[in-house]
Amino acid sequence: MSFDLTNKNIQDTFQNLLQRTGSDNRLYDLTGNEIGDLKISGSLTAQQYIVSSSVTNITTQQLSGSTIFGNSSDDTHTFIGNITSSGNISASGNIFANSGSFNYITASKIDVDASTIRIGGEELSKANLQTLRQGKSLKALGPGKVNPDILGGDITASGDIKINGNILNTQEVQMTNSSSVIDTFNTGSFRSTKYILQVTSASNFQLSEMLVLHHNSTASSTEYAQINSGLNLVNFSTDIFENSVRLNASGNFLSCSVRYERTIIPN
User: Fold this and answer.
1) Which of 21, 27, 106, 214 has the fewest CB neighbours in a 10 Å radius?
2) CATH code of the domain occupying 166-266
């Protein structure tokens, strides 16, 4: 509806006109009534948009387009309360929060406290992740142990595997002098062990099996099988030093490398 004022008397039309009056810049009609609701059929353009603090509800309607905001580096938004979304929230940059609650997170990187992730109150540190990647157990080490019970790669079995002691995968020690300590185990935790020992020096090789038992502060051993490529490279012996049984190797070849596998039985 429009109003054509051509050839109209002011007394017949003034009630349909608006004026700004007073120091508060409010709109009134020409009879002095303050304008409440105001509807326009076109666009409303303003240099600044201010919503009164007394407004408790705003209804918006959007026919087309996007609700994207924050699309420039200087466009920042601060929220004091909560943000709730029934859909996905994505970011091309980083998301930082002092605390949060999530039912499910998919991310290429999660960094909490620089080196620790906490899941359900349990800590998973960078050192724990490295241990798991090496196939090692996170279980606390028993007395006298320096490594988890099982080291190495995968174990596949069609039936049960029962281990009373621990099994080490192949370890290697390079002898630095004519007599070197190859391995140790704690006397308070373990009673006996079995070794398979392979010695290499240049093109010479030696292989033997050895049983070790400690009792009454004495370490006894027997090397019950040995083969070599024509030259005996080292001799093995045992003793006890500072509550540990030591497996020693002695020989005349300083370039010897000793590789061994050990099966150990607790007290």
Assistant:
1) 106
2) 2.60.40.1680
Beta pairing class for 218-228 and 204-215: antiparallel
Rounded Cα gap, residues 168 and 146, in angstroms: 11
Q: Which two tokens stand for residue 26?
A: 């409010």
- Return the pLDDT at 187: 93
Task: Identify residue 259 by its one-letter amino acid code.
Answer: R
Provide the token pair at 52.
């009164």
DSSP string, 191-217: EEEEEEEEEEETTEEEEEEEEEEEETT
Domain ranges of the chain: 1-40, 107-138, 166-266
Q: Can you give the pTM of this predicted structure? A: 0.42
Task: Give the pLDDT confidence of 120-129 residue by residue, as tens digits.
Answer: 667 777 777 7
Cβ atoms of 128 and 139 closer than 8 Å:
no
Using alpha carbons, select from 13, 38, 43, 39 the residue that is nearest to residue 28. 38
